[in-house]
Specification:
The complex is a heterodimer of chains A (299) and B (366). Chain A has helices at 21-36, 57-66, 84-97, 145-153, 158-171, 200-203, 276-284, 295-298; strands spanning 42-43, 72-77, 100-101, 110-114, 127-131, 182-184, 188-190, 209-214, 219-223, 229-231, 258-262, 269-273. By secondary structure, chain A is of the alpha/beta class. Classes of the chains: A alpha/beta (299), B alpha+beta (366). The complex binds zinc ion.
């Protein structure tokens, strides 16, 4: 039997921002519910996306559901606009929504991110969309969804405190460096996605709307603007963020998150801003780190 | 001077160009056609249709070609297409009892109404590489009966006549079959959703789990009541018209596994069943599915849950190969922000460790 081989024109065409309007409506409902119950994981009928699960399908669906033709989109991965997966997701939205894109944090209305929160303070009207691999903060303490949902319902977070306490007993300090659990508006314990704990304070009372999408795990959650986000800790072991010994080697920025770059095979290292936009803007404004490219000297 | 790595866009585009080049391969050879894939690699096409949950041989073949023969990649591509299609509604339940069978075997009866029909099977072939397939030698046409056979009675109906096997059961009044591609999964699941998940589940994963039940991890004493492969009609009720219309015929593989059951307080001793139904010709998948389906019914029959194959949340959460491959392979994405945080922690902990060790040395020396 010879199959009917379709012509290229016969294949489906896609709606604005890829998802059909019914699906967008379903996702928006989940987002609204998530905003109404800050930190609560709302199950949603995650769709199969044309990029793999675990590569940002949750964030992409959230962005697709809220994106309008006038939005300006920024996509970062590890803080950088030029990492391959960020490039790929940005290109996807340019293709399916023909939307304006930017690398400038300030100019963006929607910022989709994986693993970082921009250094520049976000402002009212901006939305930060996080890509989330494992939305359940209790997952590595209890693998069963049926159990963890119960624990959230009963506000039973003792297990998490025990885990953090065991860290202190064993190491003298909490050994969680990223995906550091937070409590939202005094109720739900939430996974901030695998951002370094350095970024946790930026979530607290942020002016921007923060949306979290987990595609494979089919969950959406949210932190509305001006919401309390408190990192879990103990009175005698207060939460603290990472600090770096040196400023950024390119722009001289302090109190920012730095990437370690291996320069040679002799132990040479440099530390540079993980937020590439922040670094570039500082360089453009004349800030110089000790390894910065010196234009005048080169000429 | 250090310049940060740039050019992700150009790198991606060049990589995809290289991929297209490798996919086409040696240009002196003719390109493989979709019709050839459908006709000559039919079981690969069937697997892609089954695990993508989309019955379209041409598109599945296109996906196989696009994926360079990588089955999970092909399944992924076809699913991403499927998800953009509108859903018109539910077809009427497919009637496998009136299937036009091409193959039908039962392990529980030597002979039975309708007989044993081997069909196009690898069974009893000797797995010796066949040099005649190196070239294009003429192949004899198959011998086929002149007229289509009568519908073949289901083995489960034979057993049901004596009340020895559980019946198909009834869904609760007003129950609408779920659709796991449109609703978020929740545990525990109803069996309709569970069977959907198994039907699109990874063949290898289900095979291994089914096998594990045979080796004692939740043994179910299975017999193949029947495996049948053939075409069934798909009909859609048209409320506007007041009757149903045929959408066409599809090929499916159905397996009814019959399992010993000693009975419980609620149920008399009788045979229970595990069920497998898969698009196309895929006996291995249908059989594995029916073993796992039966194992997952442990709670229903009051059996102890002691093995992975009985654990619904474990099985269903991990049976989807598109999800699994995405998450496993995402580990190759950059994680250097988190790794930096871990580096920092390990360095700090090593410093503390050394300080402690030094202190112990000092104490010992004093
Ligand atoms: Zn910098």
């Amino acid at each position: 039997m010879t199959p009917d081989v379709p012509t290229s024109a016969g294949l489906a065409t896609y709606n604005f921002a890829y998802l059909d309007e019914q699906t967008k409506r379903m996702i928006r409902r989940a987002i609204l519910k998530a905003i109404a119950i800050p930190g609560y994981q709302v199950p949603f009928a995650s769709r199969e996306m044309p990029m793999p699960y675990g590569w940002g399908t949750g964030g992409v669906q959230v962005t697709a559901a809220i994106l309008g033709p006038k939005d300006v989109l920024k996509v970062i991965d590890q803080g950088a606009d030029d990492t391959t997966n960020a490039v790929s997701i940005r290109a996807f939205f340019q293709k399916v929504a023909n939307v304006a894109v930017t690398t400038k944090t300030r100019e963006a209305t929607i910022i989709q991110t994986r693993h970082r929160i921009p250094e520049e303070k976000l402002t009212a009207g901006q939305t930060l969309v996080y890509q989330v691999p494992i939305p359940e903060p209790l997952r590595f303490l209890e693998p069963r969804e049926t159990e963890t949902r119960k624990m959230h319902a009963l506000e039973e977070y003792g297990l998490m405190h025990v885990k953090l306490y065991e860290d202190i007993a064993k190491n003298g300090h909490i050994a969680t460096t990223y995906a550091y659990p937070v409590k939202v508006e005094g109720r739900y314990v939430m996974d901030p996605s695998p951002t370094p704990k350095f970024d946790n304070p930026k979530m607290h009372r942020s002016e921007a709307l923060q949306l979290f999408g987990a595609g494979r795990e089919k969950r959406i959650y949210a932190v509305p603007p001006y919401t309390e986000v408190v990192s879990l800790d103990f009175e005698d072991h207060p939460f603290e963020i990472q600090t770096f010994d040196k400023p950024c080697a390119l722009c001289g920025a302090e109190n920012v998150y730095l990437d370690e770059v291996v320069l040679d095979d002799k132990g040479g290292r440099m530390f540079v801003c993980s937020d590439t936009d922040h670094c570039e803007e500082r360089c453009a404004n004349g800030h110089r780190g000790h390894l910065a490219y010196n234009k005048e000297a080169a000429e | 001077m250090y310049v940060a790595v740039k050019g992700g866009e150009a790198a991606i585009s060049n990589a995809h160009r290289l991929l297209a080049d490798r996919r086409r391969g040696d240009r002196s050879l003719p390109a493989i056609g979709i019709e050839q894939i459908v006709a000559q690699l039919g079981l690969a096409v069937d697997r892609v249709m089954a695990e993508a949950s989309l019955y379209d041989r041409a598109l599945a073949a296109l996906a196989v070609r696009q994926a360079r023969g990588d089955m999970i990649e092909a399944i992924f591509i076809l699913r991403a297409y499927r998800t953009t299609l509108p859903r018109f509604g539910y077809s009427k339940p497919v009637e496998t009892g009136v299937m036009l069978v091409e193959r039908r075997v039962s392990a529980t009866y030597k002979d039975l109404p309708g007989g044993q029909l081997l069909g196009p099977t690898f069974d009893y072939t000797h797995r010796l590489l066949d040099p005649s397939l190196l070239g294009d030698e003429p192949v004899d046409t198959a011998l086929e009966r002149d007229e289509p056979g009568e519908p073949v009675m289901r083995v489960s109906d034979i057993l049901a006549g004596e009340g020895l096997v559980e019946d198909d059961g009834n869904l609760p009044e007003g129950h609408v079959a779920g659709d796991l591609t449109r609703e978020p999964l929740e545990f525990p699941m109803a069996r309709d959703l569970r069977l959907q998940a198994l039907a699109r589940g990874d063949e290898g994963f289900l095979l291994a789990l089914g096998y594990s039940t045979q080796r004692g991890y939740a043994r179910t004493h299975p017999f193949v009541g029947e495996v049948r492969i053939g075409e069934v009609e798909v009909e859609l009720d048209m409320p506007e018209l007041g009757f149903s219309v045929s959408l066409g015929r599809i090929q499916v593989t159905e397996c009814q596994m019959v399992n010993q059951f000693k009975g419980s307080a609620k149920n008399p001793p009788q045979f229970t069943r595990g069920y497998g139904l898969v698009f196309g010709q895929s006996e291995r998948k249908a059989m594995a599915m029916s073993l796992v389906d039966r194992a997952l019914r442990a709670e229903e029959f009051g059996e102890d849950i002691v093995a992975p194959a009985q654990d619904e949340e474990f099985v269903i959460s991990h049976s989807d190969n598109v999800q699994a491959t995405g998450f496993v392979e995402h580990l190759k994405l950059p994680h250097y922000v988190d790794f930096q945080a871990e580096l920092d922690l390990v360095r700090r902990m090593r410093r503390e460790y050394e300080e402690r060790a030094d202190a112990v040395m000092r104490d010992a020396a004093e």
